[in-house]
Amino acid sequence: MTGSFRLERLAGWGVTAASGFLAGATYAGIKGEHAAFKLDLGLLYSEVPADSAGMFTTSRIPGQPVKVSRARVGRPVRAVIVNSGCANVATGEEGLHNALEMTQLAAAKLGIDPMEVLVASTGVIGTQLPMDRIRAAVPAIVLSREGGADFARAITTTDSRTKEIAFEVWTGAGSFRIGGAAKGAGMIHPNMATMLAFITTDAAVAPGFLQACLRDAVEATFNQIDIDGDMSTSDTVFLLANGTSGTGPVDAGSPAAEAFRTALNEVCLHLAREIARDGEGAQHLIQVTVGGARSLAEARRAARAVASSVSLKAAVYGRDPNWGRVVAALGASGVDLDESRLTIRLGEFTLFREGRPVPFDREAARRYLESPEIEFAISLNLGPYQASAWASDLTEEYVRLNSVYTT
Amino acid sequence: MTGSFRLERLAGWGVTAASGFLAGATYAGIKGEHAAFKLDLGLLYSEVPADSAGMFTTSRIPGQPVKVSRARVGRPVRAVIVNSGCANVATGEEGLHNALEMTQLAAAKLGIDPMEVLVASTGVIGTQLPMDRIRAAVPAIVLSREGGADFARAITTTDSRTKEIAFEVWTGAGSFRIGGAAKGAGMIHPNMATMLAFITTDAAVAPGFLQACLRDAVEATFNQIDIDGDMSTSDTVFLLANGTSGTGPVDAGSPAAEAFRTALNEVCLHLAREIARDGEGAQHLIQVTVGGARSLAEARRAARAVASSVSLKAAVYGRDPNWGRVVAALGASGVDLDESRLTIRLGEFTLFREGRPVPFDREAARRYLESPEIEFAISLNLGPYQASAWASDLTEEYVRLNSVYTT
Q1: What secondary structure does DSSP assign to B237-274, as a single string?
Q2: Are A338 and A265 contained in the same domain?
Q3: How many CB atoms lie within 10 A of CB B103?
């Protein structure tokens, strides 16, 4: 069933690369005066109803927008409204009403049904949205194909840059586009790490297959990144497919299924890596690859455990090839392993082979740790499965950003 | 079965407070030249065989001393040998032989069977012990009642101070003593967080009851502390009971059972809190108490989750009453909860009550966060169970200590 296909990156494009999608953003003043003129309210619109899929935080205290969107996703939708500066979490009934009103405001502007609108928020926990400002601002949003960049900017908080990607996907059955934007695990105000991602395609994708593809892609990418170990109340990934490319319907057995899966994975992988790379105060992107695991779940868990090690992240910041911390994190991960089969590499340096430390050039390893991207490659030598995880390093700047804040 | 009893703290005493225990330490040079004259090899000795209990790391890559001691604990023992500066982890067969030889060296010095010796190590992972230095140093250790303080010093790594505690326990059936020493989650060299604790008593305690009491105490104390989320390869707690106090045997139904349990819990609680307070770079001891849980396990899990939140630790460092991070950590803990029943307090300030933010005096809360000990008190309002967890805050100093190290 696998046809040949080709991906071509569309530089400078994100959520509006796919046909039929428009976006825009405005400054509503949600972050208060000190953030004057920073875009903080974005709107994404599909000219025709789009099938939708979503993945959300598993927090037991999800944000109010998560509650609203979780109930709507899976059906055809027309728009997504999103704000930064206030996460609308732990805000009680008032907060739930406000999340619903955000969808009503977008619907009124667009002349569509509020049930066709998804909503997401990111920012401070425990404060109410300034609804008067949002009511005034929604009508001011101008939608366009070029508005994708503004939309990407409006969702950022302490991100140092926007995160966008788009591809044209050439298949035997014609071409379609897929693109997206994400915001990283930055603290806002500084209050809450979170991630949001919005992905659009003009492929026509069967709803069940759309959700299955998104789940698989998220598990391999967004769920494998770690900035500070904190799971957010607001994590949300939306995928909208409006079918306007004119290529045939994509379903599990269709010729374009593999092309679609691959392109979606590439979009998620790019955005996930950019989030990790841009972790607060980060100097390095750390990739941890674990091979030789007995199952995919164990490979992912082991990679995540190593990538999440606070002391390893600090060591990377200090350019210290401190593989003992890899051993500690692996041992604590709960994953099945046999010390006498374990091998650990850092870049091209083998540090530990089959249960024994290997002498290596520490000075050269230290120089390797100056690279912006560094990789730990671990083999458990127990089975055929492999997975990766990504993290930022832990820097003094991270602590400063998340602490030295006068209330 | 509960008799009345009274605890009296014995200031300045630790592992040798109980009768029949001697200790000592020496400088073996395990940490290398830059740590010259820092005690790094300790020996604890019971003049008569002592029943023993132990709790160990659940790491899948435990240190070689853990493997040796785990097989011996539970039977009568006479001595414990311990070194700092090298954890003897991920060192293959050579490391296992070295751990065994440490017990042989102690046994030869003391004229006892090596099987009666327990061993523990803390420090760098992945390097071999300098056995020549250890062979030369063991005979130089001088044992005495006064040597408990040296023993406590010999187990420290980056701890800023030693951690010791002892009590005289007065019961209707006579009095006994219990005391202990611990090392904190400091990185050595700086390489590996770990904790070790050694507890001695001259009560006569039935072996099965001894292990049960230790397990319960460890679960409520040492297993509820968090410095940086990293579980060590070397975590070890030993409890030795030599029965020389002359008070009757302590077993589950005996008059002194409650006194013994209480005293052991107090020893573990004190040492655990001191470890958290002395976390690397720490400025605050954070206590998190979760009440109203449906089970003890859920109360402990929720308290641990909040105490482990990296972003909350950073907020405490910055004196920011940032309760949104408590919400995020609770939500992510996986514990059963109902947002509309949840209440969160910081010291005397109620921040969130039954699903709604409560206005509070942020400036006064900020001043409260200057205190050396701060407490978050959370009620889930779902059941009768309560538990606490303890943590240090996350400071720029922590990152510096764990990163800026030239290999």
Answers
A1: EEEEE--TT-PPPB-TTSTTHHHHHHHHHHHHHHHHHH
A2: no
A3: 24
Tens-place pLDDT, residues A24-68: 999 999 976 556 568 999 999 999 999 999 999 888 889 999 999
Mean pLDDT of A219-235: 80
Q: State the pLDDT at residue A339.
A: 92
What is the span of the domain harbouring residue A332?
285-401
CATH number at residue B229: 3.60.70.12
One-letter amino acid for residue B12 of the chain: G
Q: Which amino acid is at B396?
A: E
pLDDT, averaged across chain A: 91
**How many other β-carbons are positioned within 10 Å of the β-carbon of residue B142?**
13
Q: Which range in B2-6, B58-62, B241-245, B301-305 is most confidently predicted, on average pLDDT?
A: B241-245
pLDDT in tens, A324-381: 889 988 988 889 999 999 999 999 999 999 999 999 999 999 999 999 999 999 999 9
Its ipTM equals 0.81
CA dihedral for A239, A243, A247, A253, sign (positive or negative): positive
Last residue of a domain, one of B277, B306, B340: B277
User: Chain A: nearest CA to B42, how far in angstroms?
Assistant: 24
- Best of B230, B309, B316, B343 to disrupt the A interface (most A CBs within 10 Å) is B230
The pLDDT of B151-160, averaged and rounded, is 90
Q: Do B407 and A365 touch (CB under 8 A)?
A: yes
Q: What is the 3-state secondary structure (H, E, C) of A148-201?
A: HHHHHHHCCCCCCCCEEEEEEEEECCEEEEEEEEEECCCCCCCCCCCCEEEEEE
B402 with A311: Cβ contact below 8 A: yes
**Which pLDDT score is estimated for B229?**
66
Q: Which residues in chain B are closer than 8 Å to A62, comparing Cβ atoms?
A: 331
Q: Report if residue A406 sits inside a domain.
A: no
The predicted pLDDT at position B37 comes to: 67
Domain count, chain B: 2
Q: Would B201 be classed as within a structural domain?
A: yes
pLDDT higher than 80, residue A195: yes
pLDDT of residue B191: 36
Q: Which residues contact A89 (CB under 8 A, 6 or more apart)?
A: A61, A62, A63, A64, A95, A121, A125, A126, A192, A233, A234, B324, B327, B328
Q: What is the mean pLDDT of residues A63-80?
A: 97
Query: Do residues B254 and B314 both lie within one domain?
Result: no
For residues B309 and B242, membership in a common domain is answered with: no
Looking from the CA of B377 toward its CB, the CA atoms found within 13 Å total: 6
Q: Does A32 touch chain B (CB under 8 A)?
A: no
Residues of chain A with Cβ-Cβ distance to B322 below 8 Å are 191
Do the domain assignments include residue A371? yes
Q: Which residue in A has a C-alpha nearest to residue B64's C-alpha?
A: A339
What are the beta bridge partners of residue B77? B50
Is the Cβ–Cβ distance between B85 and B66 less than 8 Å? no
User: Residue A186 and residue B159: Cα distance in Å, rounded?
Assistant: 32
pLDDT of the residue at A406 = 35
Distance from CA of A85 to the nearest CA of B (A): 14
For residue A355, the distance in angstroms to the closest alpha carbon of chain B comes to 5
pLDDT tens column, A210-222: 999 999 999 999 9
Domain boundary among A277, A298, A318: A277
For A347, the token pair is 């870049």
Question: Across-strand partners of A170?
Answer: A6, A175
Residue found under tokens 């510096």: B400
